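Exercise 7. Given the encoded structure of a 399-residue chain, write a plausible sequence.
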């Protein structure tokens, strides 16, 4: 084996990013990920263009590089500029009852895209996937999908432009026809190459990727897009979902569809530091939308990894290491005010502001955000879930 390939293997061991596992020895190297996956960085000119086309300031996640990579996003903007519409597609694998802040990131951003571009949205709940990967029963997966739908609806999506569906309920008809067409285009060797399946994986896993690929094609939703086979699709998601859509983009032209475009986000780091993403299986690695103000304060004070120095004296002298400081990273996601964020970074980095002050400000912001979400979720009834999930035309979806 030559040295290069052994170095590469070493790197792959140290950094694993796929739809089921995100881990690294140190920080996730996003540059390497972009190179490996073959997507592009979102450059400032694209962000300026979004602001110009939508007539509103770009979302904080765009300005701060939370959504940082894309595939063909400029083509979506070209088409939009020509007066052509598109639709949004995102999703959630319902593996836990409560969502954490990392789960909310793609939905907050998707809501902004829906409002800014005034386009329809389909949201897939992959209850079938979680049943296969997490060893949940079919019934439990379906129950979690409905619970998660309430959190998603609480993000404020427009019911006249939004269709939420669970795979167990919706897959069939035109959707299933697309799944079969996709499946015929992807060899077993190809799927093993993309997803790393082994001989020990059951065949349900091997056959799942077409289920997540199918919503990228408008004909999977005849109640919405009949006769609109030329409609483009934009998928906002975290970058660990990229392998599914590499596969989808590969088969799209062979089936006569546009390749879906993607806009992809960084992972929301765990409280303990940036070696992966928040984990629903470790309650102390994450802030949940069900956490009380007291829980949030306690988790931030106790678990949020600090870049501050070990004593006040050293901190005043050397300042904080902003590269590793989790409270500053979280403020980068959720503190809207650019000037205030810059002030905190400057003062804290110079040692004039202490860790406790930064954590206090973060606690205020997250408590208010979680409280707002909790109120919105409490107002979501079962009837509302049924209404969002009803298979129905959306006559005003492009208004």
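Solution.
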């Amino acid at each position: 084996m030559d040295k290069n390939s052994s170095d590469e293997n070493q790197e792959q061991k140290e950094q694993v990013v796929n739809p089921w596992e995100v881990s690294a020895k140190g920080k996730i190297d996003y540059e390497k990920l972009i190179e490996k996956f073959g997507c592009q960085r979102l450059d400032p000119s694209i962000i300026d263009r979004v602001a110009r086309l939508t007539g509103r300031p770009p979302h904080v996640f765009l300005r701060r590089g939370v959504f940082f990579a894309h595939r063909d996003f400029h083509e979506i903007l070209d088409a939009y500029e020509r007066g052509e519409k598109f639709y949004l597609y995102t999703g959630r694998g319902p593996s836990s009852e409560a969502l954490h802040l990392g789960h909310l990131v793609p939905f907050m951003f998707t809501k902004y895209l829906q409002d800014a571009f005034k386009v329809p949205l389909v949201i897939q709940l992959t209850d079938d996937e979680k049943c296969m990967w997490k060893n949940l029963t079919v019934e439990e997966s379906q129950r979690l999908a409905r619970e998660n739908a309430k959190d998603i609806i609480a993000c404020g999506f427009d019911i006249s432009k939004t269709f939420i569906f669970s795979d167990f309920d919706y897959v069939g008809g035109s959707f299933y026809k697309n799944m079969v067409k996709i499946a015929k285009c992807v060899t077993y060797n190809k799927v093993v190459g993309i997803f790393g399946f082994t001989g020990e994986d059951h065949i349900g896993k091997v056959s799942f990727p077409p289920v997540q690929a199918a919503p990228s094609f408008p004909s999977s939703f005849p109640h919405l897009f009949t006769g609109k086979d030329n409609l483009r699709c934009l998928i906002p998601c975290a970058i660990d979902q990229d392998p599914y859509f590499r596969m989808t983009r590969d088969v799209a032209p062979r089936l006569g569809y546009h390749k879906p475009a993607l806009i992809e986000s960084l992972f929301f780091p765990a409280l303990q530091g940036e070696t992966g993403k928040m984990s629903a299986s470790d309650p102390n690695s994450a802030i949940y939308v069900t956490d009380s103000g007291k829980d949030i304060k306690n988790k931030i004070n106790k678990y949020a990894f600090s870049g501050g120095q070990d004593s006040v004296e050293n901190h005043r002298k050397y300042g904080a290491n902003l590269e590793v400081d989790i409270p500053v990273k979280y403020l980068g996601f959720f503190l809207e005010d650019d000037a205030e964020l810059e002030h905190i970074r400057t003062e804290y980095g110079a040692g004039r502001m202490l860790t406790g002050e930064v954590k206090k400000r973060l606690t205020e912001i997250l408590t208010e955000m979680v409280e707002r979400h909790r109120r919105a979720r409490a107002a979501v009834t079962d009837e509302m879930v049924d209404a969002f999930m009803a298979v129905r035309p959306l006559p005003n979806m492009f208004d």
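Remark. The longest strand covers residues 86-92. Students should compare their own answers with the one above.
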